[in-house]
Specification:
The protein has 355 residues and is of the alpha/beta class. The protein folds into 2 domains: 3-61, Orthogonal Bundle (DNA polymerase, domain 1); 66-339, Aldolase class I (TIM Barrel). Helix content is 35%, strand content 17%. The protein contains 11 helices and 13 strands. It has helices at residues 10-19, 24-36, 50-59, 131-145, 173-183, 204-214, 227-233, 242-254, 275-288, 312-324, 345-353; strands at residues 3-4, 60-61, 66-72, 78-83, 89-96, 101-104, 108-109, 127-128, 160-163, 196-200, 217-221, 261-267, 292-298. The strands form 3 sheets. It has a 9-stranded mixed β-sheet with strand order 3-4-5-6-9-10-11-12-13, with helices on both faces. Strands 1-2 form a two-stranded parallel sheet. The protein has a two-stranded antiparallel ribbon with strand order 7-8. A hairpin with a 5-residue loop joins strand 3 and strand 4 (78-83). Helix 5 (173-183) packs parallel to helix 6, helix 6 (204-214) packs parallel to helix 8 and helix 9 (275-288) runs parallel beside helix 10. Iron/sulfur cluster is lined by residues 111, 113-115, 118, 120-121, 167-168, 201, 221. Residues 117-119, 164, 168, 199-201, 221, 264, 266, 297, 299-300, 342 line the site of S-adenosyl-L-homocysteine.
Length: 355
């Protein structure tokens, strides 16, 4: 059977090239064809002899996930439904800003964490994505926006990556680490590590090592100021409490004073959105002496979910309380509202349509 190249590490590509009887520098050239030029056709790898191109064609494949659906919102947010070779599907979203933008990628099909407010969580875990499946999502975005070969940092529309799509990245650590190291490799896709943010629901024991091995930024889905509320909406909190998660955050920051953590905080009406909740959150941050900013997220409701979004007045009062205490607390502007915005909704609609 032919071996898939996308998702192999530099060392693995080198061993394969050497096993074909080629010199190691050919491995670097192949890497650049794959990840700098985004080339998917061996015949167009013009720095290789015809003989080598034939050998590569006989032994390897270069695969992109299939685009099952693509929706473009009025605000230019773009959402793809992608299908892998076994028919499993995930969503990817591009959220453009003025002269740059973030691509939101998935790490699992479904998710086992089961947060009560999350549409993906209601779909259970089907399987982990491979490193190649994680990387190739971003490659599809580059194909779509014509960003090959890798443009310089200043001219990129697809400038940032957020690992905030379907799945819990720290439940698929090895593949996520491998994928992030491919995405950030300077000879290929070359997204700066500081332009990638990985969001986790707080799998405490895996936080520090994963960040150490990738150098990307950390976001924590906190969503509550105490264990009682957090356990009610995020059952994972019964396994890793707020204290354990924040201790891991402290350890992460202790190694490098420049590391800021973003705490995501979803505002749910009557659950976690009072001014008292905000004050408790401030006390928590002060107790752990964390350098933190908040990202306040308006709840995206979906059919069958028990929660309601906070009112604009409550969101404002919550944000003001945090900001008065010196924390940045921007409210995320909802994007792509006209194209089934809650993560997992496009997938579930298409799954129903396709049986
Ligand atoms: N599993 C990881 C990353 C994917 S979820 C995590 O939980 O952090 C990415 C973000 O989307 C999380 O902060 C999550 O809490 C948030 N989210 C989930 N469901 C949402 C919804 N219905 N509306 C708004 N944000 C949601
Ligand atoms: Fe999983 Fe994140 Fe959704 Fe929770 S919010 S169920 S961890 S994808």
């Amino acid at each position: 059977m032919k071996k898939e190249l996308i998702g192999l590490s530099k060392q693995e590509i080198e061993s394969l090239v050497i096993s074909l009887g080629e010199k190691p520098f050919r491995a670097k050239q192949l890497w650049q064809w794959l990840y700098f030029h985004g080339q998917t056709d061996f015949d167009k790898m013009t720095s290789f002899s015809k003989d080598l191109r034939e050998k590569l064609k006989t032994n390897f494949t270069i695969t992109r996930p299939k685009i099952v659906a693509k929706q473009l919102s009025k605000d230019k947010t773009c959402k793809w439904l992608l299908e892998f070779s076994d028919g499993q599907r995930v969503e990817m979203v591009y959220i453009p800003e003025e002269d740059r933008g973030a691509v939101c990628i998935s790490t699992q099909v479904g998710c086992a964490v089961g947060c009560k407010f999350c549409h993906t969580g209601s779909q259970k875990l089907t399987r982990n994505l491979t490193a190649g499946e994680i990387v190739s999502q971003f490659m599809v975005a580059r194909d779509t926006y014509g960003e090959w070969p890798s443009p310089t940092n200043e001219t990129r529309y697809l400038s940032n990556i957020v690992v905030m799509g379907m799945g819990e990245p720290l439940h698929n650590v090895e593949n996520v680490i491998k994928a992030l190291n491919i995405l950030t490799d300077g000879d290929g896709i070359a997204i700066s590590r500081r332009r990638i943010t990985m969001s986790t629901s707080g799998i405490a024991p895996k936080i520090v090592r994963t960040l150490e091995q990738t150098g990307v930024r950390l976001a924590i889905s906190l969503h509550a100021p105490n264990n009682e509320i957090r356990s009610q909406i995020m059952p994972i909190n019964n396994k890793f409490s707020i204290e354990e998660v924040l201790k891991a955050c402290q350890e992460y920051q202790a190694k490098d004073g420049s590391r800021y953590i973003t705490f995501e905080y979803l505002l749910l009406d009557g659950i976690n959105d009072s001014v008292d909740n905000a004050k408790e959150l401030i006390a928590l941050m002060k107790k752990y002496k964390l350098r933190a900013s908040f990202n306040l997220i308006p709840f995206n409701s979906w059919p069958g979910c028990a929660f309601k979004p906070s009112t604009p007045q409550n969101i404002k009062a919550f944000a003001d309380t945090l900001e008065k205490a010196g924390f940045a607390a921007p409210v995320r502007v909802p994007r792509g509202q006209d194209i089934l915005a809650a993560c997992g909704q496009l997938k579930s609609k298409k799954d129903q349509e396709c049986g």
